[in-house]
């Protein structure tokens, strides 16, 4: 192994050759991952010290009349065309769409170069989902349609520079659709909106840093600042961001993880000792049974379908649990097969690989009852076949709490299970029979579970199922939370967390010679509340789009307006950049695909995928002309301008000039990152320690813990329905690439509500009727107008709509227990035909005129 570039500067930016395959685990083997880490120390009852006071429901429907800058997407319809929903994911169409996006954004040469270097061992990490790359061989085209769209957007050769912002006011920009905002081009120059201005205008970097430093240092307390992070941010800038916030004096570090997989961490830490999944990609290939719950891999993690296809060819059975039968859960045509002469014809004709063996169309929020039904059947099977279904040896050696858990499951009535889940006892028996005699079982889940009222408890039932089968800590078995953004898991590892452990803070303080704060800060929901109530004055966003990602859109917007300063570091314009504080800065940074040249040479960063592999990210595209800076350089400039002599300025300069200096710091602070620079240069990266993967359960009692949960019922008023928000196919998180969702048969429109046909008939609603949707929470109402009703195969009593359009319906106070995650998968709504109104209501007009 060559010396670290911090010891030998001539090695800066260099990597080992891609062809080397050292340290690659073979099928059935555990990866080399070092020593298991300590417990995550998740707070057992965090609700106790959170703000429980009420925020009144905003006037969502009339907000467009109250504020010239729209916080919600415009209501103008873009032209719905309906087709039959697709039964097959990917195939030729996915290849064509990938090329169309890539070439239309960055041109043929630039777009193609970006695609061919994406997810390669000597290339850059896809900036969309965190699905892992193969440990061994990688194909020439190691990307999916989703990643192609994200990279095409990053490779955009159009510029949204000072001339663009001089031409368009913030109000005008807010009336553009989210798609058109994203397609305006790359941000190229630092911009400022000064007090009273309605345009962003150019500013020098030095003045921008001075403004941030001045406003931060004028605060009465460091806790009056909020530092928000996107999951796209690589490890190195994420580490610097939390370091700066803590040197400044606060743990107010909310991030997008608070809104997606926080429930996973809250459930896994006390039960297994680590808030991450336990499986590797090779385990997927080895599994006998895979459960996919609350996840749509065809749209949100398309490369997962390749792994599922391989598992199916190895004999695996797949049980899919979802309110919608998504195309990716049905059949899959692997685009990679078109490059193989032996498979090309089969990929072109027919329906491809059948993914799901048993589909359970669960009601929204009914997954917990469904899991109990499966486990109740398994206990009955164990009664008939003692010692053949439940792994008593594993339970006795590694776990606690089994007796209470077993009694809880046996005491649950079939009536409650069927009513809450919407699945019959016979259907659940079919699934249980598939599991009963199998030992290699993996359960995958995503935001369809984590954003429920009882998301944490539902995941604990998933863990219970895995534990009762002894299906954890061995090849082909374990837990698999499938993360969204490319480095959302890595950002948490780097210390982006509002409730850091004492061990982490002690190590950070020792490394950088300062006293970090130990009191917990604001998570995303608490930060929104604090901003709304005027408890904060500065909001700093490193990437992301909180306005469009968070719940209760108009509450977030009002909180933004109350800030003295808002700072947005980003690559492209989004709606969140337009609803601002008194002063606002829009600072352009590089993407994953951009070449990042610093004083020591071509820099690389790193990301951690869903399965705990840390690998390099090294851009290949020449950045557009302009004044963009790397996230690392921006943060160093902010830190020096704000902290001055309170920090080691020379170290910040050194970290900016050579990112290996950052990694050397990380190697001494975070367990598992020892020799970080050396390990990162291995082809494919390295695995982080993972106790549950090796049956080392680093909980407080050293055991894997069964959980006895409470199954809550709910009652609805007449005409009320349960709404869940979802993504469209031409969308990744809050970034909208186009108005289509071809797998669901939607073209040219996003303001749609998927409804059961019988629910539509009961309300006298026909296909394509215009409707208004009202959410109901503790006597409060929020209404969004002008959606289009679409009949769809969805359980009766359930409806679905896209976010961010439906986010204004999600109350800020409606959160999952323990994790405080917004309940975007459980919103009580009513639906009625759109009111025929012209202009603002009289009361609103009078208020505006006054």
UniProtKB/TrEMBL annotation:
Residues 186-567 form the Molybdopterin oxidoreductase domain. One of its GO terms (molecular function) is molybdenum ion binding. Keywords: 4Fe-4S, Iron, Iron-sulfur, Metal-binding, Molybdenum, Oxidoreductase. Residues 40-52 have a biased composition (Basic and acidic residues). It comes from the Bacteria. CDD domains: MopB_CT_ydeP, MopB_ydeP. InterPro entries: Asp_de-COase-like_dom_sf, MopB_CT_YdeP, MoPterin_dinucl-bd_dom, Mopterin_OxRdtase, Mopterin_OxRdtse_a_bac, Prok_molybdopt-oxidoreductase, YdeP_MopB. Residues 721-827 form the Molybdopterin dinucleotide-binding domain. Residues 1-58 are annotated as: Disordered. Its cofactor is [4Fe-4S] cluster; Mo-bis(molybdopterin guanine dinucleotide). GO terms for biological process: cellular respiration. GO terms for cellular component: membrane. The keyword Protease does not apply. Gene3D superfamilies: 2.40.40.20, 3.40.50.740, Dimethylsulfoxide Reductase, domain 2 (3.40.228.10). Residues 7-20 have a biased composition (Polar residues). Belongs to the prokaryotic molybdopterin-containing oxidoreductase family. This is FdhF/YdeP family oxidoreductase. The lineage of its organism: Bacteria, Pseudomonadati, Bacteroidota, Cytophagia, Cytophagales.
